[in-house]
Amino acid sequence: MRQFFQYMRIWVCISLLCYLLAWAVPAQAASSNPKLEQQVLQILREHPEVIIESVQTYQQQQQQQLQQARQAFLQDLKTNPQLVISESPTTGLATSKIVLVEFSDFQCPYCAEAHKTLKQLLAKHQNEVKLVYKYFPLTAIHAEALSAAKAAWAANQQGKFWEYHDALFANQKQLGQALYLDTAKSLNLDLEKFKIDAFGVNNLAEKSIGKDVRLAEKLGIAGTPFFVMNSKNFSGVVQLSNIESILADAK
């Protein structure tokens, strides 16, 4: 009962603040309202705990939603992996029950290092694991991340994702329009189709990449590379032995 009244107090105070602030918007548009500002400040001075409690409640709700999203993702990966894979590029044993999901950024130096480790992993365990690539371009810090992802997506439309993927990481310091086109030429892609798919006005590449980005954000992934294998997740530059240990547990 005490908790009920605490929630009621928070709700009443926040509602009052919202009501006052809602009226404040048009008033401030014309001129400042010192009296109203003082009323709001007075409420905050008298009940500072309301703000703290509200923030804590919000954070708890967000954390609960995050945990639910992660649990649902892991459950799907275990019982219905194709739902997680969807249209994402895959390599390795097609029928493998062990699925390694990678969220990656072509301009991320740590992803380039992890790429080398994954190549070793697949060379040794290609009949045991299936690698799934999810786009997660960190556009806030990597100017070419989205363009590189779109180019890789376009290559995937012609069945050359992994070759293009390898070329981007091998030439990470040269990411740019010239590299994207030269790589497409070297892989004998249909250049006109490639240009339309990668950089056309239809934005199909960006829409598809956006699905992976939203999934990453829903799962609370903050950086790249990020991996999920069965119920385990790990991130950053990882050693082959560490991934093999997780693989052994998964088997």
Characteristic terms for this protein:
251 residues; alpha+beta; Glutaredoxin; 2 domains; 5-stranded mixed sheet; 11 helices; disordered N terminus
Write the layout of secondary structure elements.
Layout: H1 2-30, H2 34-46, H3 48-79, H4 81-85, E1 90-92, E2 98-104, H5 109-125, E3 129-135, H6 145-156, H7 161-170, H8 177-186, H9 191-199, H10 204-218, E4 226-229, E5 232-235, H11 240-250
Parallel strand pairs: 2-3
Antiparallel strand pairs: 1-3, 2-4, 4-5
Helix pairs in contact: 1-2, 1-3, 6-7, 6-9, 6-10
Write up this protein:
The chain is α+β, with helices and mostly antiparallel strands and about 250 residues long. The chain has 2 domains: about 1-70, no CATH class; about 80-250, Glutaredoxin (3-Layer(aba) Sandwich). About 65% of the residues lie in helices and about 10% in strands. The protein has a 5-stranded mixed β-sheet with strand order 1-3-2-4-5. Helix 1 packs across helix 3 (about 50-80), helix 6 (about 145-155) crosses helix 9 (about 190-200) and helix 6 (about 145-155) crosses helix 10 (about 205-220). It is globular and about 70 Å long. The model is unreliable at about 1-10 and about 25-30 (pLDDT under 50).
